[in-house]
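Re-run with default settings, no changes from the original entry. Doing this only to confirm the output is reproducible before filing.
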Amino acid sequence: YPQVAGTEGDANNGSVYTKPNAVSVVHIESINSTTVNLRWSNSDTNSDTYTYRIHFEKNGTEINIFANDTSMTIGDLEPGTWYTFTIFPQANKTEGDPKNESVYTKPNPVTNIDFSSITTQTVSLTWTSSDQNAANYKYTIVVDGNGTNRTENSNDTTAVIRNLEPGT
């Protein structure tokens, strides 16, 4: 009510909703090369009426998808790519503070493994990876022979494995 010298003017009113509580925890439930399963929690007593906006970027394009509960499967992603998923709670057209989680999708398996230059103690390997981000990958080669395991590492799609036992 506006007032002047004891005289009240006409009342006017308005209403607003408070912001919903932010998501408290984001879990990556599972990951493969093209899909991430997210689950989150919200301890707000009104959270059962919330919707959620999930924001991420894919190949330079901003993407927003919406969920009516506290989980979402996001597909059609690129293998071996870093994604940050940001979750905004929404209630009555009011958006709460975001919470995010970042993860790499899994790289696809290598293909076309070729063995060459085989001697009694060395083997040369080559392989291919068709993933868009393959140039950034590091590769681990597990050498399993004669009951023992060891690993070798490579920064590209070739490796020479040395110190092998003849005839194994």
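DSSP finds no helices and 15 strands in the chain. The two ends are 92 Å apart (CA to CA).
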